[in-house]
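Researcher: Structure prediction, please.
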Amino acid sequence: MHDQGGKTIPEHLNNETTAEAVDSDRRAMMGLAAGGLAGALLGLAPTAAEATGGIGFVGSAQAQTANATVTPWWPSKYGKDDQIGATNLITPQKILDALKQVKTGKVYEMAHLYESSMPKFGERVFALRIPGAPTGGPLGNNHVIWNDEFVATEIGQVGTQMDGLGHIGMAFKGDDKAEMRFYNGFTAAEVDAPYGLKKLGVENVRPIITTGHLFDLAGLKGRSLNLGEEVTVADLEACLARQKMTADAIKPGDCVFLNTGWAELWNKDNGLYVKGEPGIGLDAAKWLIAKDVVLIGSDTWAVEVVPNPDPNLAFPVHQELIAKNGIHIHECLVTADLAADGVYTFCYVMLPLKMKGATGSPGRPVAIV
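Model: Predicted structure follows.
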């Protein structure tokens, strides 16, 4: 923490970084991480640059390992043709159980405002225009006029976003699409198309109305988490203990959320926000997978720790959750209000847009208590 003019501010908000420097660092880290991952899959030793490159991280982090020779993760336990994934667990009874969490009718907004100034990963864009202004009219004797909007964006991958099952996969043999695998073993040849995914589009996701649980990690640590700080299984267990919850409170079909404090940077220091982040590692991801959760969300842009403690890995938690287990990731959420009020269990509602062939969905997720 640092003091500025009598005000105490978090460590990460005190960093003075230019957008250009941050973007350069981020691209270098992603390139090195991806290159290292490719080398690991091909059985190659990392180069010196890969071994030492990337962003330095603050706080404790555990080295993680992944299979260099990947074991097939398909067929899905929901069936060899399944495209729904973990939302198979959102049953009518599950919805009824979630609605029992509603006692007061208070609604917590969990989405950020969609606007061009919001932080975005890499070269993604969000541009909204009102053509004509007004777009049409006057028309008729009543001189009606109207406005329409034109939006150009990676609609399922900017702002508050939920990753669909066609978003993340793994390339087994370079550019061979028959050897690129997604959820349930579907190949890129079966999935990919220029005007929308042929399989695993977000239209297959069921409406998500279920019980949500918050892990207030910032509350546990007494501070916002740092860039590259790994959230461990011990951290998750400590959160539950602090919140007077037991591990069996998380039931199959529930969703879990992380409050790390990273959202304090939103539209304040966008460069630092997307440069890296605190998040779960593979061990914590597998701990949550074992509980049959439907979705894992966070106030960060990737949910998982970035950069990964293993410099040869790039976004391995995404692969573990989405491709291997059909579990959705919900990114860039607003969780601080829930944490501030000590709300750790609630009814969570997210209705992904039925966009045929989309890789993910924007939306207006809410928590109701």
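Model: The first helix runs from residue 19 to 41.
Researcher: Thanks, that helps.
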